[in-house]
Design brief:
about 325 residues; alpha/beta; Rossmann fold; Alpha-Beta Plaits; 2 domains; six-stranded mixed beta sheet; 11 helices
Length: about 325
């Protein structure tokens, strides 16, 4: 039995227009596709990250698993239970952190809010206080005893993360959990997630913090416009889209036309000069394509050809480059 599962899940929202659209096309029904026939499963002990540009369906997928919205088609399950039919049972098994938090009580302090939600989960008073103190220290939530209405956006996100980690829920659903956190706090929190997963719990998160995701996730699921385009390790996802490697080369004392021979090397797609000869060290960016010379072999060739190399670095395909491609509309 999987800890969480999507089976051919789709979600559409009707688009309601004004009276002019109604009169022009009274029988036309338009809809927005948030998810389209998405299937995946997550097992206990896994950390899985949902990736994709804004509007790709990440938050919708988490909301369906949390039984906050119903799928239009397909089945979502938590520990084998259908989230549409057994929402009370499945909600008791998850910790959920929303990207946009509106469910706290503004006139209560952070501690009072966490006590309230801890009671709803059936936690003892001692366990609630222990969790609050532990999570406040982990997340640097120094304002835990101040009113929620005074919190900044980042502090509100910290409280949402703290609430999701209270208790002993086996499945954590986290939507942009590090949004608003400083780098140090974010790093501590991500380390905690890895530790949580090592105890057999399941973590599913959506995040634009690509470096952090790549560091802690066992598996990535890449969504775009509601469709699941790739699944696997970061290397497998990048290979699916054939994101090219790049080399940054800097040479001292280069002469006019120094990059011309590089353009004839098989496997090099682009050689872009960053500075002209005579302006100190000359720089260029080399983009590798499929086939031809291997990156390591090219590095050796460059060191041998240019005796005055002052900088030579290889950057393999990255998730950042993948995001840029989809943001520019270069879909593969």
């Amino acid at each position: 039995m999987h800890a969480a599962e999507f089976i051919h899940v789709s979600k559409t929202y009707p688009i309601r227009g004004g009276l002019d659209r109604l009169f022009r096309n009274p029988f036309r029904r338009e809809s927005l596709v948030a998810l389209s026939d998405v299937s995946f499963s997550v097992d206990s002990g896994e950390v899985v990250a949902l990736l994709g540009p804004n509007g790709s369906g990440k938050s919708t997928a988490l909301k369906i698993l949390a039984s906050l919205i119903l799928p239009t088609a397909g089945i979502a399950r938590i520990e084998g239970r259908d989230t549409s039919k057994e929402s009370l049972a499945t909600r008791g098994r998850i910790g959920y952190c929303m990207a946009e938090e509106r469910s706290f009580y503004f006139r209560l302090s952070g501690r009072q809010n966490l006590r309230f939600f801890g009671k709803l989960r059936g936690l003892s008073d001692a366990r609630i206080e222990r969790d609050i103190d532990d999570l406040a220290a982990l997340l640097a939530l120094d304002e835990v005893d101040e009113r929620f209405m005074t919190y900044s956006t980042g502090t509100r996100q910290k409280l949402s993360v703290a609430r999701s980690l209270m208790g002993d829920q086996p499945v954590l659903l986290l939507d942009e959990p590090t949004r608003g956190l400083d780098p140090y706090t974010s790093s501590l929190f991500l380390e905690r997630l890895r530790l949580i997963a090592s105890t057999g719990k399941t973590v599913i998160l959506a995040s634009h913090d690509l470096g952090a995701v790549d560091r802690i996730a066992d598996r990535l699921i890449f969504l775009h416009k509601g469709e699941m385009l790739a699944e696997g390790s970061s290397e497998e996802v990048l290979n699916r889209f054939d994101v090219p490697s790049e080399i940054e080369l800097e040479v001292a004392g280069a002469k006019e036309g120094w990059t011309a021979p590089l353009k004839e090397v098989p496997g090099i797609d682009l050689v872009e000069e960053k500075s002209a000869p005579g302006e100190g060290a000359s720089r260029c960016r080399i983009v590798l394509g499929g086939g031809g010379i291997e990156p390591d072999e090219l590095l050796r060739l460059l060191r041998g050809r240019f005796r005055t190399v002052s900088r030579l670095s290889l950057r393999k395909g990255s998730l950042e480059e993948l995001y840029k491609r989809f943001s520019r509309g270069e879909e593969t």
